[in-house]
Amino acid sequence: MRIADMNWMQVEDRIQEDDRCVLPIGSVEQHAYISLATDMILAEKVAVDAAEPLGIPVFPVVPYGLASSFADFPGTLSLTLSTYIGVMRDLLDSLHRSGFRRILIVNGHGGNTPVTALVSEWLNDHPHTSVKFHDWWRAPLTMGKVLEIDEAASHASWMENFPWTRVADQRQPADRKPKVDFAALARVGAARKRELLGDGNYHGLYQRPDADMQAIWEVAVAETRALLEGEWN
């Protein structure tokens, strides 16, 4: 259930019965030939698909995250770490003030992981609240399914190329990109990263059959839903 389809009175009534909610977080950054909004699209969709049968409210995705590594790719937007942590703290405070005590953060971008340190700190001041942080794409069952299909899978490769992250661009290569030098990427700034990455795909094919992507999506949705239904204490 999307918060966008509810008013405040319905939220208040819902909280009296069930204090769970979902906050998706993503990023707007280069993803080679697929959408710049891939991380936010996937985080929000997996959250909505997982929560819908349970009637759990899903807030609009936080679109911008920590994407400084891709700052030299046009269209990439990045927040500073201090700004981002401040935004996330304010959002958690607002959710708590509304009455939510079980919060699932569905993350779609690896760069956003500093939020886990914030959550740990924030929970010390909110002892009767539980927060789960879920990197949906690299959760055990989901990543297991990805690797079962094709082990050459990484950022901006086929594993993020779903029907809902594609754009109208016919230039997408049909070959398999060699793996980039991850150690070299880690020690240089954004300009040099762009030179090393080329189109932005880290390695692997650019697209696989839709049947493969649907199989991954079904696992991802089920794994995310299990977190909502499982233990919170």
UniProtKB/TrEMBL annotation:
Keywords: Hydrolase, Metal-binding, Zinc. It comes from the Bacteria. Its cofactor is Zn(2+). GO terms for molecular function: hydrolase activity, acting on carbon-nitrogen (but not peptide) bonds, in linear amides; metal ion binding. One of its GO terms (biological process) is riboflavin biosynthetic process. InterPro entries: Creatininase-like_sf, Creatininase/forma_Hydrolase. Belongs to the creatininase superfamily. PANTHER family: 2-AMINO-5-FORMYLAMINO-6-RIBOSYLAMINOPYRIMIDIN-4(3H)-ONE 5'-MONOPHOSPHATE DEFORMYLASE (PTHR35005:SF1), 3-DEHYDRO-SCYLLO-INOSOSE HYDROLASE (PTHR35005). This is Creatininase. It comes from Hoeflea olei.
